[in-house]
Amino acid sequence: GSYVAQVKASRFNAGEAVAVINNYRRGDWTTYVLHTTNYGKKWTNIVEDKGLEGYALSFVQDLVEPNLMFVGTEFGLYFTIDGGESWTKWTNGYPTVSTYDMVIHPREHDLVIGTFGRSFWVMDDIRPLRALAAEGLDELEKPIKAFDSPDAYLAVWRQAMGSRFAADGMYSGDNRPSGAMITYSVNKSLAKKESKGGSSPAASGRWGRRSNEEAVKVSIYDENGTNVRNLEVTPEHNGINRMQWGLERKGMERPSRRAARTNMPESRGGDVLPGTYKVVLSYAGDKYSTMVTVHYDPRIEMPMEALVATAALEDEAGMLGAELAKAVQSLVTAEGIMKVNKGLLDADPRTAEELKAVQEAHKATQEELESIFAMIFGSDDDDRQGIVRNPEVTVMSRLYGAGRYLGNDVDGPGVTEQNLLRLAKEAVAEAM
Description:
7 helices; 26% helix; 432 residues; alpha+beta; five-stranded mixed sheet
């Protein structure tokens, strides 16, 4: 008299199947996931007394690794990587909710779940769990391990149709994060031992702050072995973690009114080209690598020569910006000297008449310095209010003018971008 919610035949062995049964209609909330290997002559409850809560609603076995299985109950999602010997509740971002049905996408390796009252929930790329099911939990004892990565796409994003600022009035699901998803595991205990031994100092945190956790260093190489990007990430968990590489290559130094600082993260450049990239992760004195294949947005026809031309123009503008950045740092140094001079003048015991010449020289130098800063970055004394359609033209606006147009091109840089780059070169030359 119980309700048979699902019967799933094995794709690995003849005569093997799993039946999902619930009996809550008669007050029985026991979890029943019954397994047979002999065409149903004998059934065994593979979840009995193994910590699952709520009556069973759904079951799915991995398409590749038979030891990896998922069970959905009235109170959430459970999984096993040892063929049902032990089960663990999945709580990473998934709520305690009726888990009615599941399917594993054969191409994307995603677990797609249908819930009651909360629509779909997708666990992106379950291959790390598949690898642990095949190789065992000992893999997590390694200092670092990288898992297979899904293909990544240089996707073109656009504002969705309909309400733009819905606030809490409408529900919007989360998109899959953009860029390349890199899944890795770390053994933090080994990192701590190495830090205590003194052979591996704690990594610098963002903006040069010292971090309590050793960072994972990520180095990315193209098909020619050229290093195109370097990142540092602090693992959130001991065990499996995920990070996103935004598919950008390393950038060049950019002009700034602030003094250059040490231990700054590598600047971000333009997008990489479609191709295959090697991702090397370093942690606790060990290294592991994985490969990522990058495609352009398949909805848009974009010739490779157009992408190459775009990258070349971005690099040309980047080198121009780096040249200007180096010069701007000399202005920043000069500004610091002027502040010291002002302090010395204010403390000088001589009379105003005696200091008149040097005060006038200081004022003239300061004004000249400010005029060059204003030429490059814009002035701070603009007292206009409201919407301004004719913003001030500066060296910086010229420098990044071509790049703003490139974002909407589907055939590479044209006459407009070349003209904008020419104007940028002229503006930088004048500033220099």
